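REVIEWER CHECKLIST
Item 1: Sequence provided? yes
Item 2: Single chain? yes
Item 3: Sequence as submitted:
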Amino acid sequence: MKYQALSFDCYGTLIDWERGIAEWLGAWGQQNGLDVPGEDLVRRLFDAQRVEQSRDTFLSYRDVLFRSLARLSEACGIPVDEGACSQFAQSVGDWPAFDDSASSLEVLARQGRILCVISNVDRDLFAGSAARLERQFDILITAEDVKGYKPGPRHFDTLVACLGEKGIGENDLLHVAHSRFHDIAPSNARGWTNCRVTRHGDRWAPEGVDGIEGTYCVPHMKDVVDLLERIDPA
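Item 4: Structure as written out by the authors:
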């Protein structure tokens, strides 16, 4: 078995963050009398989040979400409600898993592969997502752990070090992720074998990454299982 370890981005790949955020913002918008399409609210929120994550001083993901909703409120002419901002930051654990995520991870775990997550999140917020995925991962690396956000190098460097402690090299790793910007581009730069899971597409990616693709590309997590059955059967 060549790919002894699989590393995953979580949100967009295993957890449907787009649906979770859209449902939360849709309800929030209605409560505040906004006549703005849900997709537009998600785009504005995502743009605000990227600004908060790029600050010189590291902010926890909880703070990033809090400040992103505050920024969105101001842009929409709505008074900032700190209670709503806190509730939004806490909502990460409520975002649903994709239907095939838990079952696909179970198959891959039974094959004896080491399952890792590298994610732009806090550990306590990820705990709710892990419960939805019905999985405790062998390696978990969060933004809170490395004090930085992808596509920066700290998650990837830390993963290499953690796998090295298990005697696993970068050539033994398959990185699985949805986002071209956060995961596929930086893993390509490292020469990693990777697999892009397209899910909804990549509507929220910044300009300049449209032509970037992974080593493999599949629509769903269940197709990652099928791919490995073909290229690296356990």
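Item 5: Key structural point noted by reviewer: The chain has a mean pLDDT of 94.
Item 6: Recommendation: ____
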